[in-house]
Task: structure prediction
Amino acid sequence: MSGIGKLSHETGCSVETIRYYEKLGLIPTPNRSEGGHRQYLKMHQARLLFIRQSRDLGFSLEQVRELINLSEDADRTCDITLELVQLQLTSVEEKIKRLEVMREDLLLMACDCRNTCSGARAPDCSIVTILAAPMPVRRKSPQAPEMWEPSMV
Result:
């Protein structure tokens, strides 16, 4: 058995996060010592590592709860967990597409600034002009939200 500080160190989860996961019921409530201190077992450490790795992969707390439930239900098949992972993969791929559009826009803004603002004062910078435009010209991408089109402002 170990205390919350040691468990925090072993799992990389803060003490506050461990308590939060307990409150949400994602980890079982630990027994307490006579002095009232939580006493964590290896199963708590394993569950926290499961949660942390799931969160690192972008799963929401509700999805983590579903994964935990699936991990404990011998009557359910792997198909359900695969479906959750495939949904998460689709979400990640969409985010990557949006980030690629953002990257392109930021590169265009930087290039425009380098080409037109050499030595200019910050208030006259093309980046400031683009960001302050009241009615920005936008580009639409089928998989991405509307983004700035710096070269058109």
Q: What stands out?
A: DSSP finds six helices and four strands in the chain. Residues 92-152 form one domain.
